[in-house]
Amino acid sequence: MKLSTLLTINTIVAGVFGLAFVLVPDTAMSLYGATLSPAGVLVARLFGAALLGYAVLSWFARNASESEARSAIVLAMFVGDALGFVVALLGQLSGVVNAVGWSTVAIYLLLALGFGYFYFMKPSNS
To answer: How far apart are CA 88 and CA 104, in angstroms?
Structure first.
């Protein structure tokens, strides 16, 4: 896989989840068996806004030439997805969400592995 492909996949995933959390946070969370208070809706929308920012960053970085900036983007995506994996896994293991939460664990894990590969194993970020 090429880095541009991984960044495109990240754009799609972050874009879909970002739009869902910004536009219909109650519906998005209900898929996980969770309900939101008004403050929870606000936090979910803020999370969605951040995801949409990552989607835009990934989209415009996908064809960037090799540089320190592109390397920094790949590292930031790795760190964010690795931490997201840990948080999602802990939440899943504690029973905070239903079985659908395992999809979130898997998505964060796969993205973290992908960005980790391009940062640590293939430093040229091809």
So the answer is: 7
Residues in the chain: 126
Written as one string, the DSSP assignment of 16-54 is HHHHHHHH-HHHHHHTTT----HHHHHHHHHHHHHHHHH
124 band by pLDDT with thresholds 50, 70 and 90: low
Structural contact between residues 62 and 7, judged by C-beta atoms closer than 8 angstroms? yes
- Asked whether the beta carbons of 40 and 30 are under 8 A apart, the reply is no
Instruction: Find tokens 């964010």 and name the residue.
Output: 80
- Burial degree of 15 (CB within 10 A; 0-12, 13-18, 19+): middle
pTM above 0.85, yes or no: yes
40-92 pLDDT per residue, tens: 999 999 999 999 999 999 999 999 999 999 999 999 999 999 999 999 999 99
Task: Kindly state the tokens that stand for 124.
Answer: 């040229």
